[in-house]
Structure formats: structure tokens, C-alpha cells
């Protein structure tokens, strides 16, 4: 699903943010990416999502060599990826239903399909009864679940999370990670960058560690 071979990321006038990265994430795996702030976790996720282009090496995602993807093909490539962030970035003037349905609306799905898929994923995350509520009426953990539902409503093959539990207490962090695991169990490949070592230590999943832009030996 994800393959990095001798990958470097260098910003003009700056240091190498990623250095000689070699890693494999197989189809259907759930993998955690750890490391201190500035270690390169977010940059690695951005390269996977083609939010940035790597400087050297080869990245293959879902069978596609990212260096060979033209700019006009990036939106189609991203349709197979779901994104989850520390800040859930919900639209506060739209209902829970509208927030979750947004990716499908943008992609031009028929309303009947949008309604069916949105209701299904809201039921999965336990929020179907809140579909008409505004995000401001929800608790923090519920808002995070809305963000997860929006990330997976278009049934992506790959789900990327960038510190998705960064603002949550331990109980909500555990609940959120178990939701990611739930979607992983139905075939979604999951890669999550996180500082939350206490929670991921209980999850018994593969962990990849970065330090100063390099992979720590034995973690990939």
C-alpha cells in the first residue's frame, strides 16, 4: 500500500526534514508513526498524500509511483485517501450530517447515495441521533468522531491521521483509536502520526519511529 525507498525531503535553504527513509505499510495494516515534534512525521504524511513532493527517492502508494503523477491527477489520487487531523476542522454553521457528507457532495454523488452512506457511517461512530445538530452542540469527543466519519464516508483505501488525539484526554484518546481500529478491521489501511505513546502501547500495532528525520533502526 505504501512504500518508501531511499526517500529524502529537503526544503530550499533548510535542512533535510526526512533522510533516507525506507519503509513498507502493507494493505490492511494499522501502523503508528511516532517521534518528537519536528522529527518529520507530518512531512511524511504530506508526502503520502501528495500535499508535497519529495526531493529524492521513490514513493509508491496503492501501486502508483507518486513522482509520475501529474498535478491534474492528484485530486483523483486523493479520492482513495481519508484525512484526520488534531483540529477536526468542522464547519460550525453546518449540521453534523452536512459536515460528514461534504466529501461526497464535492465529488458529485447523488443525494440518495449521500444520505445512505452518511447515515451508515454516522451509525458506525454512534452519532446518527445527532445528525441535525451543529458541531458547537457536541462534546469534544463527539466532534472528533464527526471528523473521523467525514474522513471515511467516501470509503477510502487509506486513512491518514495527524495527531488525531492531541487535544483529547486519555479516555477519549482510547475511544478514538478504537474507532480507527474498527475501520481498519473492515479493510482500511491506517497510518497515524501521534505522540500518544501511552494509548498506542495498549493497541498492539506496528509502530514506526522517527528521530531528526531518520527512521530508528528496527521500527520499519
Order of helices and strands: EEEHEEHEHHHEHEHEE
Distance between the terminal alpha carbons, to the nearest Å?
14 Å
Rounded mean pLDDT score: 94
Rough shape?
globular
- Strands of the widest sheet, in order across it, are 6-7-8-3-9-10
The biggest beta sheet is recorded as:
6 strands, mixed
Approximate helicity band? 25-40%
Q: How many helices in DSSP terms?
A: 7
Number of E-state strands? 10
Radius of gyration: 17 Å
Ranges where pLDDT stays below 50 over 5 or more residues in a row are none
Strand portion, in percent? Answer: 25-35%
Q: Which structural class do you get from the secondary structure elements?
A: alpha/beta
This entry's quaternary arrangement is single chain
Q: What does this entry show, briefly?
A:
This protein is α/β, with parallel strands linked by helices. It contains seven helices and ten strands.
Verbal overview:
- The chain has helices at 41-48, 74-78, 96-107, 111-124, 140-152, 170-184, 197-200; strands spanning 2-10, 16-25, 30-34, 56-61, 64-65, 81-85, 158-162, 189-193, 206-211, 214-215.
- It is of the alpha/beta class.
- Helix 3 packs across helix 4 and helix 5 (140-152) runs parallel beside helix 6 (170-184).
- The model has no long low-confidence stretch (mean pLDDT 94).
- Helix 6 links the parallel strand 7 and strand 8.
- It contains seven helices and ten strands.
- It has a six-stranded mixed β-sheet with strand order 6-7-8-3-9-10, sandwiched between helices. It has a four-stranded antiparallel β-sheet with strand order 2-1-4-5, with helices on one face.
- 32% of the residues lie in helices and 25% in strands.
Amino acid at each position: 500500500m505504501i512504500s518508501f525507498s531511499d526517500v529524502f525531503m529537503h526544503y530550499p535553504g533548510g535542512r533535510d526534514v526526512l533522510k533516507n527513509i525506507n519503509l513498507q505499510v502493507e494493505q490492511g495494516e494499522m501502523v503508528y508513526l511516532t517521534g518528537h515534534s519536528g522529527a518529520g512525521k507530518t512531512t511524511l504524511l504530506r508526502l503520502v498524500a501528495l500535499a508535497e513532493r519529495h526531493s529524492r527517492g521513490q514513493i509508491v502508494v496503492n501501486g502508483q509511483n507518486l513522482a509520475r503523477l501529474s498535478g491534474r491527477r492528484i485530486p483523483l489520487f486523493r479520492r482513495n485517501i481519508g484525512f484526520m487531523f488534531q483540529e477536526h476542522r468542522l464547519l460550525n454553521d453546518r449540521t453534523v450530517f452536512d459536515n460528514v457528507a461534504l466529501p461526497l457532495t464535492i465529488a458529485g454523488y447523488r443525494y440518495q447515495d449521500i444520505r445512505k452512506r452518511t447515515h451508515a457511517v454516522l451509525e458506525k461512530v454512534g452519532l446518527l441521533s445527532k445528525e441535525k445538530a451543529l458541531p458547537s452542540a457536541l462534546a469534544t469527543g463527539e466532534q472528533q468522531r464527526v471528523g473521523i466519519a467525514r474522513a471515511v464516508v467516501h470509503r477510502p483505501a487509506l486513512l491518514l491521521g495527524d495527531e488525531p488525539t492531541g487535544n483529547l484526554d486519555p479516555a477519549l484518546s482510547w475511544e478514538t483509536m478504537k474507532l480507527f481500529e474498527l475501520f481498519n478491521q473492515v479493510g482500511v489501511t491506517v497510518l497515524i502520526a501521534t505522540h500518544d505513546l501511552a494509548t498506542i502501547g495498549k493497541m498492539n500495532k506496528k509502530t514506526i519511529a522517527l528521530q531528526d528525520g531518520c527512521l530508528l533502526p528496527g521500527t520499519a
